[in-house]
Amino acid sequence: MLDIILIVFGILFLVVGFIGCILPVIPGPPISYIGLLLLQFTDKYQFSTDFMIMWAVIAIGVTILDNVIPIWSTKRYGGSKKAIWGSVIGLLVGMFVFPPFGIIIGPFFGAVIGEVFDGKEGMDALRSGFGAFMGFLGGIILKLITSGLITFYFFKELI
What we know:
Number of domains: 1
Oligomer: single chain
């Protein structure tokens, strides 16, 4: 009975982890990893210690990279902190105003608006906004791949 509860909660953590890959306030891969950890606590399903340590390091590393990539990408394209914040705000607004396409277009427009508020005009704002958007999108893709692989190993072991 305890195994079933752990598996159900593990699946819930995997789902929340995927949601966290898109929402910037929820750390997706670490939450997905908790789902894997819950499966590890069952009597029937076990992973090696090296496997669990490797995925813990990957989940933490991806979370750190998710904070570094948008900053690096924005700076590379000449953007400001307002572009990064605009990208995050654009995602949140876009999710509710234009679902599901708002998840893609919201961060871009938010970044461009952030650059306009920072005093940039025309192509400079678009270029910086594009850099912020690309960094933000890169982080999301990296998190989705990581959480997807964790989910794959969860269900591979379960089946």
